[in-house]
Design brief:
Elements (H helix, E strand, L loop, with lengths): L5 E5 L2 E8 L3 H11 L9 E3 L2 E6 L4 H14 L2 H10 L2 E3 L2 E2 L14 H19 L5 E4 L9 E4 L6 E3 L11 H10 L7 H7 L2 H13 L10 H16 L13 H13 L3 E2 L2 E2 H12 L5 H12 L4 H13 L5 E7 L6 E7 L5 E2 L5 E2 L2 E5 L11 E5 L3 E11 L6 E9 L5 E7 L9 E8 L13 H18 L3 E4 L11 E5 L6 H16 L27 H10 L5 E4 L6 E7 L12 E4 L33 E10 L5 E4 L30 H10 L16 E4 L4 E6 L2 E6 L1
Antiparallel strand pairs: 1-2, 3-4, 4-5, 4-7, 5-6, 8-9, 10-11, 12-17, 12-19, 13-14, 13-18, 15-16, 16-17, 18-21, 19-20, 22-25, 23-27, 24-27, 24-30, 25-26, 25-29, 27-28, 28-29, 30-31
Helix pairs in contact: 2-3, 2-4, 7-8, 8-9, 8-10
């Protein structure tokens, strides 16, 4: 009190306050100290938000409470000391900060508490534990004066923290709504702030004006670019890379990510949409980027795509399914209700009936980034309805119901939950009939006209074409062929080259580096000096391999689409315009292979069905580079073979009608029929040392290869 006697709550009873005798000078010094507002505690700032980082509890916190209790046993002071001693600002602990500004401590206990706070801060800096973010407002720290003496009516005084600044109400309100994203964004921030991501996002911005819907990603790209700029300009550690930042800078970037961007209610729209941006970072070319951005922004398909991703992650394999999907910006809990042919209903309250199952539910407790639900069904007629079980947004909620049967196109029903429709009033969307799914739903058939032409031309076909054969080509099939050149890789033909390869193996063993099939892990420091001499185009690479046959080439499977070359044989020569093997390139998965076309990239990628001996991290050696006139360069891969399962990659044999000579144009239909129906066989009599031409065509604008362990991005 101001009279020189301090009244404190009894340790035995919070409601009982006792007098603790203090000298007048000591009491005055104590009150002068706790009332000091001339040296305010610095706090962290990000935008208009002010905050401190509260470190986890530990033994030091208990020691701080013991010291506070020893001073005058005040329960309020003990409680505050146990919390405030954990709070850190940019200059260290915020508790008792004025001791660092030349203000004398009123007693030894205050000095000890400050020392404990600094010890705790030092421990926190050495720990990898994430700190709790505490928003600083006017109400974060309790006031100095709290509680009154019942006898005298005088206010009690306690230590506290006087922050140098407080958050604006707008920033604090926004953060409180989105606080769940703090820490949840870390993986995304790490991927978006590496140097390669900055360059990739710049490419997206360059391509944005050329999209069919350029505004679809505009806001999200602005948010991403803002984060990347803040990571470089406002974070002092990590050189802009989130994973390399200090704990304080990581916290700052998290806050900036939350404070910027589009928000609807408690949903950060740009964070959820940036899931697409992360996927775009690894696309192989500008053409592929534009195609994928247009595809995902198409209102007819982007919600179906999110259903497809969920089905894959949940391992759903049903041949008949009914899916419900809607935009993540609507956090409402839509529910699918499916009535089976026998009249039973499947929904969240009855997840299985009549052999049909609700595979997954969405938005049960909170909004999800890509909400969707699915019911695995069986043949029959189903009635599909939708309910809005929990309304969290205002206005109408658009959705799509997808009815899918294996071997048939999706049937998509668009619907909208009205703004004023009450919960429980089911909205009937459709009645859909599924049939039995067969491997070949309708069998093979042809029109009457085609049948007539086939009969008329049968004689000529038998006499000149006969029964064509299709065999996977080898390098021997191209020996001496006009218009095709084969360059073998990793072969030492001269004595000096043999010596270099031997010593390279010795160095690799002594240094315990990775084998050549794992090029990213190989370390050859001398190669950094010759980076400028590395090939920059595929043509230069071919020339380099020709001049240096011992060159080791490798690729990463996920960077390339599968392909192969097929030797076709007919009864008479001259049926095709060329005798070179037919190229078969998988542009898209689940579709027949086609001729490779430059500057085009699809969604098919090499996997273990093609490369059973691929290294664990996805790298495989190149056995030969094949340069064929009029086609794309081809890489024959070591150990590559045609897949035995044809669902993802249906094999074909390269019977392209455009390859027929003019005299045989009339046979285009029958020739094309062989493309899908005659599967290529593996050569049984290949000579020793011959390389089977199974691998990848380089169709993109750029190709990534690894030459002697160094990654190269080549223009094609």
């Amino acid at each position: 009190t101001s009279q020189g006697r301090v009244r404190m709550p009894s340790p035995a009873n919070d409601d009982e306050w006792v007098d603790v005798s203090k000298g007048e000078d000591e009491s005055t010094a104590y009150y002068t100290y706790i009332d000091d507002r001339t040296h305010l505690s610095p706090v962290y700032a990000a935008g208009d938000l002010r905050y401190v980082l509260r470190v986890p509890k530990g033994a030091i916190v208990n020691e701080a409470k013991r010291v506070a209790k020893a001073l005058h046993g005040c329960n309020a002071c003990i409680h505050r000391a146990g919390i405030y001693v954990r709070d850190l600002g940019p200059s260290g602990p915020v508790f008792l900060h004025n001791l660092t500004c030349g203000i004398a401590a009123p007693c030894a206990e205050v000095t000890k508490l400050r020392e404990l706070a600094e010890d705790l801060a030092e421990q926190a800096c050495q720990s990898c534990q994430q700190h709790e973010l505490v928003v600083v407002t006017d109400a974060t720290y309790a006031p100095v004066r709290e509680g009154k003496c019942a006898a005298t009516g005088e206010e009690y005084g306690h230590w506290t923290v006087h922050p140098a600044a407080c958050s604006t109400s707008e920033a604090a309100t926004r953060y409180s709504k989105l606080a769940r994203y703090y820490g949840q964004m870390d993986v995304r921030l790490a991927k978006l702030t590496v140097p390669e991501a900055l360059a990739s996002v710049n490419i997206m911005l360059e391509e944005q004006p050329h999209l069919e819907r350029p505004e679809h990603y505009a806001a999200c790209l602005r948010w991403v670019k803002t984060l990347q700029r803040h990571a470089v300009e406002q974070c002092t550690t990590g050189s802009g890379a989130f994973e390399l930042m200090s704990l304080a800078d990581k916290a700052k970037l998290r806050v900036l990510a939350i404070l910027h961007g589009r928000v609807e209610g408690a949903t950060h729209l740009d964070f959820h949409q940036s899931d697409n941006i992360v996927d775009f970072l690894t696309l192989p070319s500008r053409d592929a980027l534009r195609a994928e951005m247009d595809s995902r922004s198409d209102p007819r398909f982007y919600m179906v795509s999110q259903l497809n991703r969920k089905l894959a992650s949940a391992g759903v394999t049903s041949r008949h399914l009914i899916g419900l999907t809607w935009d993540g910006k609507f956090t409402d809990d839509l529910d699918i209700h499916v009535k089976t042919p026998s009249g039973n209903k499947i929904y969240y309250g009855n997840k299985s009936a009549d052999g049909c199952t609700l595979d997954f539910d969405a938005n049960v407790t909170q909004g999800e980034a890509n909400p969707c639900e699915n019911v695995s069904c069986k043949p029959g007629t189903f009635e599909v309805s939708v309910d809005n079980y929990t309304r969290r947004t205002r206005g109408a909620v658009p959705f799509q119901v997808v009815c899918r049967q294996e071997g048939m196109p999706d049937v998509v029903y668009d619907g909208t939950w009205p703004a004023n429709r009450a919960k429980g009033r089911l909205l009937l969307v459709c009645r859909h009939t599924f049939t039995e799914a067969r491997e070949e739903p309708g069998g093979l058939a042809m029109s009457a006209g085609a049948a007539g032409r086939a009969k008329a031309l049968a004689g000529e076909w038998s006499a000149k074409i006969g029964e064509p054969t299709a065999v996977v080509a080898t390098t021997d099939d191209l020996a001496g062929a006009c218009g095709a050149t084969v360059y073998r890789c990793g072969r030492a033909t001269e004595p000096a080259q043999v010596g270099r390869v031997f010593m390279s193996m010795a160095a690799s063993t002594s240094n315990k580096t990775a084998p050549a099939a794992d090029p990213v892990r190989r370390k050859k420091a001398f190669l950094s000096e010759s980076v400028k001499r590395h090939p920059t185009t595929v043509s230069e690479l071919v020339a380099h391999v020709q001049a240096h046959p011992a060159t080791q080439l490798a690729v990463r499977a996920r960077d390339h689409a599968p392909g192969y070359m097929v030797s076709l044989a007919t009864k008479c020569a001259g049926v095709r315009k060329t005798d070179l093997p037919a190229p078969c390139h998988f542009h898209d998965k689940h579709a027949l292979p086609v001729k490779p076309v430059r500057a085009t990239v699809g969604n098919a990628r090499l996997d273990r069905s093609w490369l059973p001996c691929m290294s664990p991290n996805g790298y495989v050696r190149v056995s030969a580079v094949v340069d064929v006139a009029g086609s794309c360069p081809f890489l024959a891969l070591e150990g590559a073979a045609l897949p035995t399962c044809g669902e993802a990659f249906p094999l074909a044999s390269g019977f392209y009608p455009t390859d027929l000579s003019a005299d045989y144009h009339a046979h285009r239909e029958r020739w094309a029929f062989y493309h899908s129906q005659l599967k290529p066989r593996v050569p049984a009599d290949a000579k020793e040392g011959a390389v089977t031409l199974v691998g990848a065509f380089l169709t993109g604008d750029k190709a990534i290869v690894y030459m002697d362990g160094v990654q190269l991005t080549l223009k094609t």
